[in-house]
Amino acid sequence: LTAMGEPSMDPSISAADSQEDSLFSMMDVFLISLITGLFTYWFFFRKKKEEVPDLPKMQSVAAPVRDSSFIEKMKKTGRNIVVFYGSQTGTAEEFANRLSKDAHRYGLRGMAADPEEYDLSDLSRLSEIDKSLAVFCMATYGEGDPTDNAQDFYDWLQEADADLSGLRFAVFGLGNKTYEHFNAMGKYVDKRLEELGAQRIFELGLGDDDGNLEEDFITWREQFWPAVCEHFGVEATGEESSIRQYELVVHTDANMNKVYTGEMGRLKSYENQKPPFDAKNPFLAQVTENRKLNEGGERHLMHLELDISNSKIRYESGDHVAVYPANDSSLVNQIGEILGTDLDTVMSLNNLDEESNKKHPFPCPTSYRTALTYYLDITNPPRTNVLYELAQYATDSGEQERLRKMASSAAEGKALYLSWVVEARRNILAILQDMPSLRPPIDHLCELLPRLQARYYSIASSSKVHPNSIHICAVTVEYETKTGRLNKGVATNWLKNKVPAQNGSSSLVPMYVRKSQFRLPFKPSTPVIMIGPGTGIAPFIGFIQERAWLKQQGKEVGETVLYYGCRREHEDYLYREELARFQKEGVLTQLNVAFSRDQAEKVYVQHLLKKNKENVWKLVNEGMAHIYVCGDARNMARDVQNTFYEIVSEFGNMSQPQAVDYVKKLMTKGRYSLDVWS
């Protein structure tokens, strides 16, 4: 524009020269105004243009280039071990914290890190730090998938062509042997880092949650550290010692408007709801229906409907709904009484490491009551590190020794922990009750207990039919332990008591939706075989609703086959009327139900599959049907899969290994999907 301004001045000057002896005409006034305006515009614009080269400098000051660099953070804080965690339920994060705390015993300094918060391409620079090591505690989620917070890291590993030849690493995987892709994420990270040139300094650890994950971790850890010592030429500096990570601050005159009352992220987010809704910002959904599904029996099976109107939450059939439950108030009160604490004391636990990204173990400031109700897991048996830290507070030497023994890596200690804590299902309250001399400060207990996690349920509705509500099908968990105590499932008993009401928190459920790969075929004409006994029927109610809706839209809908199972026909046959209606309307083309206890010999869904094996093979082989399995991973899903191996082997004229390969290929192509739990 500066260049444009200059030529426009020349004609105006010549016009003024030609009339220098005459009075200003209107044209002169106009031209002089134009000159002044253009000159002013040019002057200010030129000034702005001169400032442009300085802008990049200003930006570099405001936003450091390495804002997400764990290398810079490690250098700044004198750390040489970084422990990354891929965690969905908090266990991998807990293990990462324990490993990073261990480091000080060997004259090293560790930090636990969420891969979501850092640029992992910096791994190639870790060798800049002396005696540096990267450890990865990686959980596997769903069907061999990375956890939400490790998704970006996983994507980077797949695409990376980085040279990691200077990187030293070790991996501990957290998985469950009942799942098809046992520890897939841990195995992949271990293999891929080696492919990129990194040096493994200790073998891959494979933790199995179906067995004893805690023992697997301890066994790996007690061999891991000697390998680290040998590699770096360092020695243990002493016994494991109790080091507090947080300091207690009690707020005597707290402004209650600034105190957390159960929110997961933003303060007052439950009073002032703002989308988008996710794990850190759940939506408070009203329960509009809560009915018992079963007609008899000891169990309580229920159907709940959550209102998501005006939330902008979208879901698909097959997705999961996550709900944040609250602990039973009677358990919370008993912990307060045993520890002689005023639970309504408002406090904060502040991280002693000022450089840490995690300022508090849970939202602070808050009250002990809120922390124990909404933020901390008080119902699961505590892990050995919690017992070790608590031991110092037992005034009886026998109790103190017992706690230390259970936290040790000795075979006798592991056996005692397994029998007295794990198998007896002793939670923290039971341990405090059974060890009268153990009375820890409540703030240290709150620091040690893991976070209370969201619970996931397969959505039992279709958004095509129910765009403003999400349906849940669940069974309340309740059992007697070996010590004679009655243990209740946190979430299911909390949901059971959610009564539909016009208003009030008694009917509100903090929730969000987690996307799933469990999807109906793209073409409605593709046949589907659904296998879901018990509450495993949940996603299939959504699938059938959607197929019915597609049929109403005039679409050609393929065969829709359901294999369902329950204990007794007149006791726990879930959604009986709905299924009968769908069958009558011709949407559900086959309804096969196994009643396991209505006759002398138990009959399960896999028996019905074998009975109809010819039809099953025809649908799979000729109809290109998609197979879906939902429910128990430990027995049902494995038995169903073995049945498919038999059917494929028999009708496809294949050997057992060929049949296994055939089914595995169906999985790879997305034609055999699992939504299972153990």
From TrEMBL:
Gene3D superfamilies: 3.40.50.360, NADPH-cytochrome p450 Reductase, Chain A, domain 3 (1.20.990.10), Nucleotide-binding domain of ferredoxin-NADP reductase (FNR) module (3.40.50.80), Translation factors (2.40.30.10). CDD domains: CYPOR. The chain crosses the membrane at residues 23-44. It is an enzyme of class 1 (oxidoreductase). GO terms for biological process: response to hormone. GO terms for molecular function: flavin adenine dinucleotide binding; FMN binding; NADPH-hemoprotein reductase activity. InterPro entries: CysJ-like_FAD-binding, FAD-bd_FR_type, Flavdoxin-like, Flavodoxin/NO_synth, Flavoprot_Pyr_Nucl_cyt_Rdtase, Flavoprotein-like_sf, FNR_nucleotide-bd, NADPH_Cyt_P450_Rdtase_alpha. Residues 280-521 form the FAD-binding FR-type domain. One of its GO terms (cellular component) is cytosol. Residues 81-225 form the Flavodoxin-like domain. SUPFAM superfamilies: Ferredoxin reductase-like, C-terminal NADP-linked domain, Flavoproteins, Riboflavin synthase domain-like. Its EC number is 1.6.2.4. Its cofactor is FAD; FMN. It holds the Pfam family FAD_binding_1. Keywords: Endoplasmic reticulum, FAD, Flavoprotein, FMN, Membrane, NADP, Oxidoreductase, Transmembrane, Transmembrane helix. PANTHER family: NADPH--CYTOCHROME P450 REDUCTASE, NITRIC OXIDE SYNTHASE-RELATED. HAMAP family: NCPR. This is NADPH--hemoprotein reductase.
